[in-house]
Amino acid sequence: MAETEETDGEGLARPAYGSDVEMNVFDAVRSQSANPVQPVKLGKTDSFCFHCHKDVSCWNVCCHGADITLPPYDILRLVRFLHMTPAEFLEGYTVPAEHSESGMPVVKIKMGGENGEGPCPFMHEKDGCLAYEARPSACRYYPLGLISMKMKEAETKEDFHFIVREEHCRGHAEEKRQTVAEFRNEQDVEAYEQINRGWIDILMKLASWRSMGGVLGKEPTAQVRQMFFMVSTDIERFRRFVFESRFLETYKIPDEALELARKNDIVLLQLGFDWLKNVLFNEPTIEMHEQVLQAAIAKARTELSSS
Questions:
Q1: Phi, psi for 3 (deg, rounded to 5)
Q2: Which residue numbers in the chain have pLDDT < 50?
Q3: pTM above 0.85, yes or no
């Protein structure tokens, strides 16, 4: 049986097994149809017809009431585009939420209207998306979904796509035919995938563990959730945490990597993902100073012997 991770409508992946791959893969679909997902596996050389433009009759419909979770790189791109601090962006454009499968805190784009069924804050009725250059990955992918599947004995994952065909969307009736690879290149999704992958892997591992009561049988503490939220949403806050707290007294970070992390947000994000994997799963992704490690081992032994 194939062990898989599949993307949902929030632009995040979720674990699935066997035939579950074809079920509930796109939670944010706002269609009245029972199953808007076309269960056809598409490789990068497969083609499909789709074109979204100002003259299509459903222009901007999909920008109302959308359920869009923002992964870390999506936030980083929007913050840069808007020339805001992450804290300002979070307050003005997002609402707090919970990733349902893992139970971890995330943020979603704040839609207009009393019930969140109104327009995206970046949508202009005539001009379309005012943040198009920095639009989230979920918007870039539409109408494609992505599944990342890994066989239990395999060393690498296999990615493939599928089509989501909502009833309101007239873009599918357009004559523009393109391959999946051409569409991905046009939408510039590669960087989003590569940088957000570490974060999505954390959520998926947490989702898998959750079915067994949490990592090592325990749910993440409130403090760990706060750590996850900090890395996920506020790169400046995480930078202050790394360089102004006791973080560097605890962890041994190579000087070159540390210097890059001071200036490069993407390098700092990767450090954050490695740190979370170490904290959450005890993975050897980041090295502790020897004296700190020995103290932690001694503490763990004391707790085990007294239990």
A1: -90, 125
A2: 1-33
A3: no
The angle subtended at Cα 31 by Cα 30 and Cα 35, nearest 5°, is: 120
**212-251 per-position pLDDT tens digit:** 776 766 788 999 999 999 999 999 999 999 999 999 999 9
- Read off the tokens for 263: 């200036």
Residue indicated by tokens 């090295």: 287
**What string of H, E and C letters represents the secondary structure of the chain?**
CEEEEEECCCCCEEEEEHHHHHCCCCCCCCCCCCCCEEEEEECCCCEEECCCCCCCCCCCHHHECCCCECCHHHHHHHHHHHCCCHHHHHHHHEEEEEECCCCEEEEEECCCCCCCCCECCCEECCCEECCHHHCCHHHHHCCEEEEEEEECCCCCCEEEEEEECCCCCCHHHCCCEEEHHHHHHHHCCHHHHHHHHHHHHHHHHHHHHHCCCCECCECCCHHHHHHHHHHHHCHHHHHHHHHHCCHHHHEECCHHHHHHHHHCHHHHHHHHHHHHHHHHHCCCCCEECHHHHHHHHHHHHHHHHHC
The CA distance from 203 to 102, in Å, is: 6
Closest CA to 78 of 129, 125, 137, 134: 134
- The residues facing 47 across adjacent strands are 179
Calpha distance 142→28 (Å, rounded):
11
Of the candidates 275, 30, 281, which has an alpha carbon nearest to the alpha carbon of residue 138? 30
Q: Which neighbouring-strand residues pair with 109?
A: 94
**Identity (one letter) of the amino acid at 197?**
R
